[in-house]
Give the backbone structure.
Amino acid sequence: MNFVDEADISVKAGNGGHGALSFRREKYIPKGGPDGGDGGRGGSVYLQATDGLNTLADFRFVRHYEAKGGQSGSGKLKSGQGGADLTIKVPIGTMVYDAQTEELIADLTDAEERVMVARGGDGGLGNTTFKSSTNQAPRKTTKGKPGDARALRLELKVLADVGLLGLPNAGKSTLLRAVSQATPKVANYPFTTLHPELGVVSLGIGSSFVIADIPGLIEGASEGAGLGIQFLRHLARTKLLLHVVDIAPYGDEEANLAQDIRTILGELEHYSEQAGAELDQLDRWLVINKTDVVLPEDRDRIVQELVAELDWQGPVYTISAISRDGTQALCNDIMNYIDAELKAQEPQAFVSIPDPNADDD
Ligand SMILES: Nc1nc2c(ncn2[C@@H]2O[C@H](COP(=O)(O)OP(=O)(O)OP(=O)(O)O)[C@@H](O)[C@H]2O)c(=O)[nH]1
Ligand SMILES: [Mg+2]
């Protein structure tokens, strides 16, 4: 499922420093020649791909980026210092477009790949440059050139880190709405969601992940009941499944949450067998939703009974997606989980093992 995260940013390279107008002034040298230095070049702006980011969420916090200007030249032939370049880190796979012309500037597919998106302005020339046989004391200098300014659109195809799983009407789409800017349809009837939808959850700079909402599953889905199970393949590459459960299915006098949960697990196993996927091996957290419709003491009792009946060993969360009660804590834990997973995947530091046969003197 291709979902494109987008961000609009503007970049401005540094202006060049101005050239200096100056003449040598020293004792015993009454008519010193010109000694005005050139201005420094302005800093350029680069985008660089890094594997530490997986969404464009950070660009919702900072939208404008500016590199430093060059310093002006000065007397004694001193050139102005160049402005420092600015390198903006973007996720691998970011496509960079000029927002005005729609031109594709770069497709940053490799780690550390870098592209200049705004060139720093050239420094101006000091008056020394204009000295000639006919003009020994030029007063001419030039100004630094302005750095490029550009509006950019960044696009990134993202994959879901977390998948929402559950019966129809459990509140999956409501949860996605509560924690991201995505606006999937929510309604009080089964099969409101017909297509998978993704949302970026952003918890601050450098902390974001992607959640996928898919249509609800029902018993027999793996045999084609309801909307079938085809959408489960979208969850195959996620790291974590959130199993969303309605704490008090409306109008269902004999609500049996444990049974509801087993139904979904059964379908998950069926699907994994059929498709050769290992969805049933993914980590799964229980997210008991709609806690606002029961009393707190009932909530705790229901959850305790449920965990005991299922012999559930994994994490359990109680939330109200509609009032956003508990959703922040859930997202924080997901972020920590994903960060820990990423760390575990990083190659281990090289360890050198001493050669036991080496001479030891
Ligand atoms: N009281 C209450 N109602 C909720 C809560 N979360 C969702 N709902 C309601 O439950 C109904 C179903 O919500 P959806 O988010 O559409 O459920 P879904 O799981 O996406 O359903 P499908 O797309 O059909 O699979 C809607 O009427 C929501 O307003 C909650 O925390 N509390
Ligand atoms: Mg839905």
